[in-house]
Amino acid sequence: MDKNKIIALLRKDMMGEQQAIVQYLNHAYNMPEGTVPAEIEAIAREEMYHLDWLADMIVELGGDPTMERDPVDFGAAPAEQQLLKDVDLEQVAIDQYRAHIAMIDDETVRRLLARILQDELVHQEQFRDLAAEAAAEAAAGGASGAEAEDGDEPAGKPPERLQALLNKGVRHEYSVVLQYLYHSFVAEDCEASEELQNAAINEMQHLGWLAEHLAEEGGEPDFTHEELVLTRDAITNLEADVAIENQVTQMYTVQIPEVDEEGLKKLLTRIRDHEIYHEAVFSDLLAEARATTASQKDETDEPSAPTRPSIPSVGSLKD
């Protein structure tokens, strides 16, 4: 099969992985604390590995990873129904990976997809078990999905300004997770790639903290991303990363005094301080990238040594 066709199939697989990550996390964030949402988040983390592996394979084949996703079902429902949706989504992934394995003739790619397929089969069984657990808990009078614990009334909607404030953070964190992951996928410098992945993991923590807080208040996290800077140029990418960290640091600094709840104020302060650290790390990486580029340019611009005139041979003198 042509490499471009393989890349197109792998990009489609990436879209499905990101769809699963967002759907599973949204379900987990909207459930009361306990073993079920923790297990869902663990499955989502495994899907993140799949996303990373697929992106690496696409880059190896000479293509560009995609940071788009298939449509996510954000509909509210009791926990059992949400988990059954996840069972169905795993079946979609299973069918797609089996079809792509049958179509692709590259053994390295087939081996990767078969490895991912094994995980999806396990995930589907895990979701079936979790759905049964949620059904049993609901039958016993426990909390289910967005329902409140201990017989309390479900949480009402948070104040409009608070929901807007938290969702601004959710959208930012989701956006930079995608942007930093893409930059890490295409980075040629190993140190830069590792630092970008570390930042993406930390931003994913921020996303979870904000989304969980919003869900606990009765709000709905907004998993839409802002405009992303997705290029192959290291300097352009790092300049964008420094700029967005500077921007979000200012955003959280403005938001913190607006918040009355002490716990949320401390959370936003903690996130803001992490962003300051990220900006410093990215600034160092940017300085290194610029220095490397300048050094390479100097080497290219250096005049070549003058060539010595060739000494004519005896034969040429006779002619």
Describe this structure in words.
With 319 residues, the protein is mainly α. Helices cover 73% and strands 0% of the residues. It has helices at 3-29, 35-60, 79-103, 107-139, 160-186, 190-216, 234-255, 262-301, 314-318. Helix 1 runs antiparallel to helix 3, helix 2 packs parallel to helix 5 (160-186) and helix 7 (234-255) runs antiparallel to helix 8 (262-301). The protein is flat, with a radius of gyration of 25 Å. Mean pLDDT is 91; it is low at 144-154.
Topology of this protein?
Layout: H1 3-29, H2 35-60, H3 79-103, H4 107-139, H5 160-186, H6 190-216, H7 234-255, H8 262-301, H9 314-318
Could you list some keywords that capture this structure?
single chain, 319 residues, mainly alpha, 9 helices, 73% helix
Summarize the model shown.
The chain has 319 residues and is mostly helical. 73% of the residues lie in helices and 0% in strands.
Strand content range: under 5%
Q: What structural class should be given to the helix and strand makeup? A: mainly alpha
- What order do the helices and strands follow? HHHHHHHHH
Give the proportion of residues in helices. over 70%
Distance linking N and C termini: 59 Å
The count of β-strands is 0
How many helical elements? 9
Largest sheet: none
By oligomeric state, this entry counts as single chain
Uncertain regions spanning at least 5 consecutive residues? 144-154
Radius of gyration: 25 Å
Mean pLDDT over the residues: 91
